[in-house]
Structure formats: structure tokens, C-alpha cells
Amino acid sequence: MPDSIKVFLLWLLPVALGANNPIQAPRLAAAIEFDGRTDDEAWQDIPELKLQMQVPNFGVEPTEKSVVKLAYDEHYLYLSGRMFLSSDELYRATTFKRDAFDGTTDYFGMVIDSYNDNENGLAFFTTPTGLRWDGSVANDAQADPDISIDWNTFWDVKSHKTEDGWSVEMRIPWSSLRFQDRNGEVTMGITIWWYIAAKNEVGIFPLIPLNWGGVSMWKPSQAQRFVFKGVYSHKPLYLTPYVLAGYQQNAELNDDESAYLIERDPKVELGFDLKYSLTSNLTLDLTANTDFAQVEADDQQVNLTRFSLFFPEKRQFFQERASIFDFSFENFNRLFYSRRIGINDDGDAVRIFGGARLQGRVGSNDLGFLTMLTDAPEAGGHSESFSILRTRRQVFNRFSYVGLIGTNRTDLHGNFNQSYGLDGIFRVIGDEYLTVKWVQTFEDSLDNELLSLDPARIFIQWEHRRFDGFAYKAAFSRAGKDYNPAMGFEERGDFHSGSLELSYGVLPKEKSPILRWRALVRSQLLQNITTDTVELAFVEPGFELETRSGWNLTAGLRHTHEYIPEAFDLGDATIPVGEYDYLQLNGFFFTPFGGLLGAFGNFSVGQFYDGKLLSLSLSPRYKVSPHFTLEGFYQYNRADFAERNNSFQSHIGRLKAEYQANTKFSVSAFLQYNSLDELFLPNVRLRYNPKEGNDLYIVFNDLLNSNRSREIPHLPRSDSRAIVVKYTYTFTM
Fold first, then answer.
1. Is 43 exposed, middle or buried (0-12, 13-18, 19+ CB in 10 A)?
2. Are strands 107-113 and 237-253 parallel, antiparallel or unpaired?
3. Confidence check: pLDDT of 11 > 60
4. Going by CATH, does the domain composed of 3-229 fall within 2.60.40.1190?
5. Average pLDDT over residues 187-212
6. Domains of the chain by residue range
């Protein structure tokens, strides 16, 4: 039997046996001319992968034809796509921006579970303009935050516009994928999909049901398994030095506090990052004088609670395979929060002298280790060392794992905060999952008893993971009075709570304009352990709805009982100590992704403690052309406490303009306004990226006072201003 027929039959087997039966991936017999066209002779003997429609009408033939092929050789994993469009009006190529993923343009690519662990994935996508979008997936994409766009690696893509559509070739070096080979044989999970923006249509292989809502297509556990033979990870060494030159000026009060003086500080910095694959699935990163000057400024936020605000991590170094360090509880609470490293409590950057990171797999164990040394977070303090060790492995089945974690934060004066933790996620049967987590912290200022509940955190959850039909989630959570994760994020301590979520979801038939909808009820009861006081209790019935055209709407009516043990401020208003019952209507919406003009927004209206609240936000965006994009954001908050003749009002505004000359050169201008701080925050960033690992940045930041006369002496026009030029170049050895 000819080899081509054998390969073809192998690719037919999954149709009969099911998508989880591994497929032997075809190996290229000749080199590919890598130009974005798919008519090379080398592609002709490679069997096609058949896409099926996932959205808007599940399981039917896609409305547009495609030819998709996957192959490999000793150096690269290749993916090609020939996308046919029945009308020129369906062609959407709206951006050249690196890592742009906004739904207004067509996308094609794949999610790779390179470790075949059903939990973690690496995503590689492109558009008709040939941009590169790469990201990471954690926790089997249980929710949107598990999909990160901040991970980047080395790979290539070429696209080509045709008379009746477009074509693309992607190649990913094996050295950019971490995997475990057994005598040169590697098994990976791969999901491939094509998004047609004009139709809000997704064609996918393998066909993944929408049981988990909008994240279904990202789930590594649902990917098709492919077997690659004769594949060994190459172990190049990447050395990326940088040089930075900049100018900083700050306004400081003089000694008698009668006027502001301008302090000017030119600076030149040198540093480097080094990456080396110790084995095919274990990578070492070293960094010296680590710098993040090119990172975009944090979005301004308004705090309507008595707890700290959570800001997402934007620094790429901390994004790579960040899922291995994940040890999270409910909401944003987590044992490890990477922004504790190199950023102080005021949000100011702290110098990072350097560090090391080791991550990958040893045997059957996922392994992550990180250690960093920073300057003192505050003047007069001491340098600090941050370390974290994390390991986990699959048990019982490919959807379950157990793990260990340890953290250590120490300064040069001997002060320390340490923790250890154990966790497990177990697929009991079907869609039934049990999650168990235990953490204990230790500090130099406390008597530390092993297994004591006072410095411990417990989390137990049982859930039925499905979008359609009946689902539920029941959880118990506890944090002792001395629990203090100094490397993590925790809203509050000294509590135990129980929560319950019940839902019923429906995936209507093809003729319905509704793609999916779900009715649900969320509730929680939280009690302070020391005082035995119920500090929070709420129940919130609501619904979620998505149309086949792409409209989304979520709404809920929430009744809250809350006890405030200490008064806190909201701008000029104060929330006194006491018990409160209030009712609010909350909602969120976004328009179809495929439109050149779109928006998303949310609202909260109703009672608020002993007053009333109106909170509205709207974020429009407009794709002026493939080269130019405008985005805006406006948030208005107003709380009135009539009985106390007290009120609170705030405005947050953001305007962002981006120009992309091509996939290599871009300029962005970002202006923010915060009425509470009475500040304008402009940010301008120029980037030239001729290839991965080679970047030139020019960044300008300012902090402008909008009301200089609010204090005596009058505030300066600018509190802080900086311009930075940074160049990096990666050497491959």
C-alpha cells in the first residue's frame, strides 16, 4: 500500500473512533518555500483537516470553504490554510498590530497543548495582514482570565491575499515549544480554527461542543491528539541584551515646603535576559538589571469598596508559562501575585537587580521556580528577595492533578514571610470536579505552628462544569486571622464563607437567533471568625445571553447585606460603621466583534449602603482603517447619601489612538483622566519590531495636574515626566 494512502487512512480514523484517538501527524517529504502561499509541491501530499462550524450553527458545514493542513519536519511544526471567500465584502483585514485580538478581523491558527496535560496551551494565530498573535492558556480555559495575550515566543508567519480569499503559512520552531518526548515520539493536543469576522462564524477542528460557553474553543482538554515521531527539542541559547537611555524629571517640595523644585535625572541602563533549554522540556531564564520601561501604563480605576484594587500583570517576563505558578482562590485572591515583585504598594517601579526562572517538566511533574532580587520598596528600607517553587502532576486521569507550592519573601534585615501549600483538582466523574487547596503562611514576627488554622487558607469547591443544562458550583473558603500572603493578593482575612451558584443553560436550535443563554443564581455568606459577625451576604439571580450575530448581555439583581467594621472613604464621602442592606441592578454588554464600530459597557444602579449609586461605563472602538484604530473609555460613578448630606462623584476617561504602518512599525498615544486624583496621564509609545527579539522602543510618560490650585503652594504642571529610548537585540547561539 502506498505511503500516501496509509497516511490518508490514518487521518480518517478519528472520524470513526472519536477526536481523542491520537493521529499520526504527516512528516514533510521536501522543504517548503515559506511565502504564505499553499501551492508548494511539498503540501500536495499532506491530507486536509476538515473544519466544521462551531458558531453560530453547531456541527454544520461552514458557509465558506477552506483547505487546512498540518505537517512537520525536524525543525518546525507547520500549519497552512487556504481560506476561500464567496464575496470580497467578507474579507476583513483591519489591523497590523502585534497581538491584536479584537474580533474585527479574520483569524486563523491553533492552540497547542504541547505537554499533553489537558490544562495548559500555547496559541498561535494570524490574520490576512500577517500579524503575529501568540498567547497562553491555563486551567483548561475555565474562564476568560485563563487566556493571556502577554506571552510571546519565536515563530514565523506569512500571509497572502488571493483573488477569492487569502492564504497563510505558519511555522513554529520545536525549540519554542516545551514538550516531553519518549524516544523521539511526542504527543500534543492541537485545536485549529478559522474565525470569519463578517459572519461571526467559527470553523474548527476537532469539533468542540459549546458546553463551556465562549471559552470552549480554547480548552486544551478538548484538543485533537497528534503524534510526532523523530522530534527532539533543539536547545538554542537566546541572549537578549538591552541598552536604555532616558531622562526623568520630578517635582519635589523644597525644604520649607513653600515651592516645588524640578529635579532632573538623566540615566543610562544596561541589562540582559538569557534563555536556555536545559532539556527538551526544561527552560532556564536568567535576567540582570531587569527593565520594563516599554510596558504600557496601568488603566486608571476607581475603588468603590474598602479593599485594595487588583491590577493585571502586563510585564512579559512574568507572563511566560505563568500558569505553572497559579494558586488562586475565589475572585482575585491568590497566593502568588507577580506584581509584588518590582512594584511597591503605591504602584511605583522598584529596581529589579536580577533573577532566575526554571520551568518545564521533569518526568511526570510540572515544575516552576522563580527567584528575584529587588531594591528596597520604600526609602530607608532593605533590599528584598522573592522566591517561589511550584510543582504539580496528573493523577487518576488526564483531567486531575495534585500540586505543591512554596514561597519566600525575605529582606536583608532578616524579616521574612514564607508559605507552603497543597492543592488538587479531581475529575470525579463526567463533568463533576472537586477542588481542594490548603495554604499556611509563616512570619518572623509570629509564633509559627505547623498546621495551625490561624495563619492558614482553605478552599474546597465541588462543581458541575457545563454551560448547557443544569450546573452548579458550591464552595467553602476560610482565611485565618494571621494568614498573610506577602507575595500574593488577598482582599480580606479572618473569615470563613460559603458560596453557591446554580444555573441552567440552553443552546437553542439552528433557526433561533439566540446562540446560547443561561439563567443563574449566585449567593454567598461570609462571616468574620473572631467577631462571629456576618460581614457579607448576598443573593443575585441573573441571566447571560449571546445571539448568533455576536451580541452579548449579562444582567443580575443583587441583594446585599454588609457589615462595615471600620469607616472608609469614597472621595469626599464616608461610609460609617454599621450594617447595611441594599439592592442593585447590574449589567454588562458588548456588541458583535466583527463590526468596524463596536462597544462594550456595564452599569450598576440602585441602593448603595445608606444611599444610592449610579455607575456607568462605555468603551467604544472604531477601526478607521487597517492602519489606524481609535478606542475610548468613560466611566461615571455617583453615590448620594441624602440623610447624611454626603455625596461622591468620579470620572475616568481614556482615549487611545494607534497607528500601524505595517506589522513591524507602530505608534500609540494613550491619554487617561482621573477626576479623583485630578490628573491627566499621557503616554506615547513607538515600537519598531523587524523580527521577534529585536525591538526599538521610544516611550514618553507624563503626570499632569488638572487643578494646580487645589493645594498651597500651587502644584506644578507636571508631577513627573520621562522619555526613554530602549533597544533590545536577541542573539541565538
1. buried
2. unpaired
3. no
4. yes
5. 94
6. 3-229, 307-493
